[in-house]
Amino acid sequence: MVSRRELFTGAAALVGAGIVSRVGAASLPEAVSMDGAQTKVPPPPPNGRPYNPVVTLNGWSLPWRMNNGVKEFHLVAEPVVRELAPGMKANLWGYNGQSPGPTIEVVEGDRVRIFVTNRLPEHTSVHWHGQRLPNGMDGVTGLTQPGIQPGKTMVYEFEAKRPGTFMYHPHADEMVQMAMGMMGFWVTHPKNPNFMKVDRDFVFLLNNYDIDPGSFTPKTSTMLDFNLFTFNSRVFPGIDPMVARQGDRVRIRFGNLTMTNHPIHLHGHEFEVTGTDGGWTRPESRWPEVTTDVAVGQMRAIEFVASDPGDWAFHCHKSHHTMNAMGHNVPTMIGVSQRDVAKKINAIIPDYMAMGDKGGSMGGMEMPIPENTLPMMGGEGPFGGVEMGGMFTVMKIRKDQKPGDFRDPGWYKHPAGTLAYEWTGALPEPSRSSTAGGQLMRAEGPKQNVEFNVRKPSGHAGH
Ligand SMILES: [Cu+2]
Fold first, then answer.
1. Considering the domain 2-200, what is its CATH architecture?
2. Of 386, 344, 347, whose CA–CA distance to 364 is shortest?
3. Higher pLDDT, 213 or 179
4. How many Å lie between the centroid of ligand 1 and the Cα of residue 354?
5. CATH 2.60.40.420 intervals, the chain
6. 448-460 pLDDT, tens per residue?
7. Is the CB of residue 80 less than 8 Å from the CB of residue 92?
8. Could you tell me the pTM of the whole model?
9. Which tens digit of pLDDT belongs to each residue from 190-217?
10. Distance, CA 394 to ligand 1 centroid (Å)?
């Protein structure tokens, strides 16, 4: 049996916190388990071929043991409690104490053996999404193997042939098991550690859940209408920042195991898609962009030089994916004064609160919410509430960040003269133009009927 110390020889301090040992049968590799949702920077590989480890956002990488030249891992499929952000926990299914499961990192050409123990109440399997492997190792219940029954352990073994970005997830009762969070990341590093070398390599999965406000367990029959969109089963402000040193070459890899596509957007820098689920892209096939769409089941690796210091937003561009659980079918109330209505409802329901008649600003509202429920938009920034939740985090680029240091440097301090500022001079009425008669004409003044003006709903007494 391999002890925890042997697994982490030389760099135990980096990853030790939060790990609990779990002793299995003598012939099995130890099933290492994680009890927290913080980002754990993995140590350099203690044995085997050298590689540059990836950093899993709010996750960790699974240790292995070498057995006659074979890298052996032990995954335990089991119910877990995952903190989605401070203030909300979810009853999920995952691997080795967390959901998503740990990232598996191997090197091109490695012989890999993975023991999968099932502690779920139903059968499962593991499909190694994107891998080249013998058909019988593909993990499709009923097609290439019988399901792994509760309490049983099955063994997968194959050579990690193609370097690149992969995922793993069950192919057994898929809709339920994926809605419950059964998934993990896999990176096969190139044999030559200098091939496409970057200074920082971040990975995470895109996942979604449907958890009713006030409850803990996802609804597993939801097809499309999910209410929590997450990076590695965390929502903002529970997602750690990605930290880089100015000038670093940064790679960010993400795989989409939600039920919709996500246009992932980085502020302040252009990137190129250097890898897909099928491998590395050819350099002549790349073009610069600031948003890349990742479809269901796809993976993308983007790369850029972190040239500009600051706190750069990084998020899905679907605005309802940067919000936490919300009521659906909420009418637009911009321009509708609800003060009188709210007053009347308050007489019956004391906690009732009118929904934003000035747009936005939910972040700062102290609305009573059920237990174990996050505000729709959370997170405090240096200038007030960041009115977002869900798939949102910050790329923090600093001149003096030490190589290999992934700790949060705090908020960016803007150099003098580089911050948007309030105009305090005179404010004459701006002249306006209209295109009446096909010609640009000067209009009389501000339009009287624009939506911005308060329009009260008709048909209510007292207006
Ligand atoms: Cu999205």
1. Sandwich (2.60)
2. 386
3. 179
4. 27
5. 2-200
6. 555 554 544 443 3
7. yes
8. 0.83
9. 999 999 999 999 999 999 999 988 889 9
10. 16
